[in-house]
Design a protein that fits this description.
With about 400 residues, the chain is of the alpha/beta class. It is about 30% helix and about 30% strand. It has two domains: about 200 residues, no CATH class; about 160 residues, GMP Synthetase, Chain A, domain 3. It contains twelve helices and 15 strands. Strands 1, 2, 5, 6, 7, 8, 9, 10 and 11 form a nine-stranded mixed beta sheet that branches. Strand 10 and strand 11 form a beta hairpin. The longest helix is centred in the C-terminal third of the chain and has 30 residues. The protein is globular. Keywords: Germination, Lipoprotein, Membrane, Palmitate, Signal. It is found in: Membrane. Belongs to the GerABKC lipoprotein family.
Length: about 400
């Protein structure tokens, strides 16, 4: 009996050292952030904005498993401060719940904030334990982050979700953009680049109206932002140049190449895309690069009289697509070399991986070497599927080239 008493006492005593849920926080006590905005404020301060879920306005559909909203499903809040922590402290005075960043999907940087530089501010962004690195990152071209956070999309209740989906549909970096930015910021062989967005209208060429108008203001991808080694924004590339950049980096998921000429044009939708960068050293230890672009996909459109069931016609069209890709990517690389001088493609990383010993003598002066480096581009494009028809149905039999 005494033996069992000692056992029970030992069991009860051990419970004192077991961890419990004494520090847990309920969802009702948290303000769940979907997106964060960073802007420049007066007197050298910064302004932090947040897009926060309104739980009462979010309902879960019983059949589909996706969320819908009755009324606006979010609200925007902002506050200014000397640094990030000061701004967040000032913002917390406006919130009845504790700010929670575990579900944050997107980070927006105002253009003026990006020009100021990010080195002195992003420490707090990754130091917090509840901040996920799986987030999208954008620079707001020609505007402020807090303005974009207040702009809903007609198809998505949250601007954060809208921006994330637009980036995914474009074949870009998606929710790895923030992580890739941090990675590039800590390496010598590549400089950071961040996708950019701008406020536009749903109808091209016309000024956007109110939210419920037939032509509301919308957020759209506008290209990519170039940063230097000090994490200061130095310029933009357009959407076409952004796709070229992603292709060379091996991050592009899909793209369409179109060719036009007097006898009709054609388009291919590439869904299997790759790129290889080959560093080549001469006898003087000077490096040059050969970029090999690869792409396979389906013929999307053919407005000519060519019958695509014939192999020779496919070869002719493949060559046209290859020349367009080569010329386009070569032009983008040379523009970055000439105007910005920053290796945002990762050519230095290619040398580091394949020739680590030689890279040691290059890395310190790579910002000066890259703009002068010779880089050639070749493309290998293959049409794998031609669709339902050989020639276009709009051409007569006598007009079809076989």
């Amino acid at each position: 009996m005494k033996k069992y008493s000692v056992f029970r006492f030992g069991l009860c005593f051990s419970l004192l050292f077991l961890s419990g849920c004494w520090d847990r926080k309920e969802l009702n006590d948290r303000a769940i952030w979907l997106a964060t905005g960073w802007d420049v404020a007066e007197k050298g301060e910064i302004e932090i904005s947040g897009q926060i879920v309104i739980p009462a306005n979010v309902q879960t559909q019983s059949g589909g498993g996706s969320g819908s909203a009755s009324g606006q499903g979010f609200f925007t809040i902002s506050a200014k401060g000397k640094n990030v922590s000061d701004a967040m402290q000032n913002m917390q005075t406006k919130l009845p719940r504790e700010a929670f960043f575990g579900q944050r999907r997107v980070v927006f940087l105002g253009e003026e904030f990006a020009k100021r530089g990010l080195k002195g501010y992003f420490d707090a962004n990754q130091r917090a334990s509840d901040v996920s690195l799986r987030a999208d990152l954008f620079v707001v071209k020609g505007g402020k982050a807090k303005d974009l956070l207040r702009l809903p999309n007609p198809l998505e209740k949250s601007p954060a979700v809208s921006a994330l989906k637009e980036h995914k549909q474009s074949g870009g970096r998606g929710d790895t953009a923030y992580l890739k930015f941090l990675t590039a910021a800590t390496r010598d062989g590549i400089r950071p680049s961040v996708p950019s967005m701008e406020i536009s209208s749903s109808i091209e060429g016309e000024k956007g109206g109110k939210e419920n108008s037939p032509n509301p203001k919308v957020v759209r991808l506008s290209g990519v932002t170039v940063f230097d080694r000090n994490l200061k924004m130095i310029g933009f590339l357009n959407t076409e140049e952004n796709r070229d950049l992603l292709w060379v980096m091996g991050l592009l998921k899909k793209m369409t190449i179109s060719t036009t000429h007097s006898k009709g044009g054609a388009s291919i939708n590439l869904t299997k895309i790759d790129c290889k960068i080959k560093p080549i050293f001469n006898q003087n230890n000077q490096v040059s690069f050969k970029v090999i672009l690869k792409g396979e996909g389906a013929l999307q459109e053919s407005n000519s009289g060519m019958d695509m069931e014939y192999t020779e016609n496919l070869k002719i069209l493949n060559k046209k697509f290859e020349k367009i890709a080569e010329k386009q990517v070569q032009r983008t690389i040379e523009k970055v070399q000439k105007e910005y001088g920053q290796d945002i493609f990762g050519f230095g990383e290619a040398v580091h991986r394949k020739h680590p010993i030689r890279w040691k003598s290059l890395k310190d002066d790579w910002d000066q070497t890259f703009p002068k480096t010779n880089i050639s581009v070749t493309a290998q494009i293959k049409i794998k599927r031609i669709g339902m028809d050989g020639p276009s149905v709009l051409f007569k039999e006598s007009e079809i080239k076989k």
